[in-house]
Sequence to fold (358 residues):
Amino acid sequence: MKSKIWVLLILLTILIKFVSWYPYWVELNYTRSIYPYVSKIQRFLFGWIPISIGDIFYIVLIIIVVYKASIFFRLLFQRKLNRKYFILVLQQGIFIFLFLYVTFNLLWGLNYNRKGIAYQLNLEVRKYTTNDLDTLTTVLLERVNKYAASVNVQQRDTFNRKKKLFSAAAKAYVEAGNQYPFLRYKPMSVKPSMFSYLGNYLGFQGYYNPFSGEAQVNTTIPLFLEPYVTTHEIAHQLGYAKESEANFVAFLACRSFDNDAFRYSLYYDLFHYAIVEVYRRDTALGRSFQERLHLQVKKDRQAYREFYNRYKNPIEPIIMWGYGEFLKANNQPAGKMSYNEVVAWLIAYYKKFGIAEL
Fold:
């Protein structure tokens, strides 16, 4: 039985690697055919539970790893390790890796290799010029200033109640689904992360758990970030695995939703991605955009910097480097900068549908 499981895992690993070379096949036969059922079953099973089942899974996994490591080092210090033990540990390690790799990809990970939202919207995502970037950033500046002036403190404070935040994010996808049927989202499964405070030190604002199908949000980040982060994680639930695509799908959802707080969160984040790219090309142009920001946006940017600096530590860069390598291994060569690639998507989008659609 054990030998058969080994053979099955090896064959599935080879098969997953093989089909990942064919995005069109993945799009039609996995993302559109198999994955919708997998994700809905996961959300149906775990979405109603108030606590995060995925986080509990991670906690148990960490406990097991720590326990196994303690046994290893105890035997090491007692000089009781031998060749047979090392071979056993290696076999167990390979088995666990193969099992997690196969499970990860079958439950969600193959979506990294799909055709994606560009194929669905028939967008031509290409290298863009500085003029293209200037046009986009000008529009984003106008949008973020507009919603900064209209969002009041009461609207922001609404999201202190996370059920309202998550419910509103689901409604955003209901609206988006009316225009784009492939963005229909039901049932809902969005939860506060149990690791939110830890996440501030490790540098994450949210994450998707492929083993439970839950979208996790770090609910300790500044309130103005939370709507966009939540819609981003829901995009992952819908099968948009790449970070640039999840950012773009979150744009479609927030833009479709008639809620000023959601739209401000959207344009705040998108302006951030755009201005980073502007500064990489033209520092003077970047400064000119910064100077024209609404006072509330400037305050929020300062609040975010202070929040980030409060939790800055030597471990975070190491974690972010590891995460960047994970992204590169999953068909995102830019690593952490993959998030910024949403700029190219937005430029392709306005060139196809017009500036007014941003």
DSSP finds 17 helices and three strands in the chain.
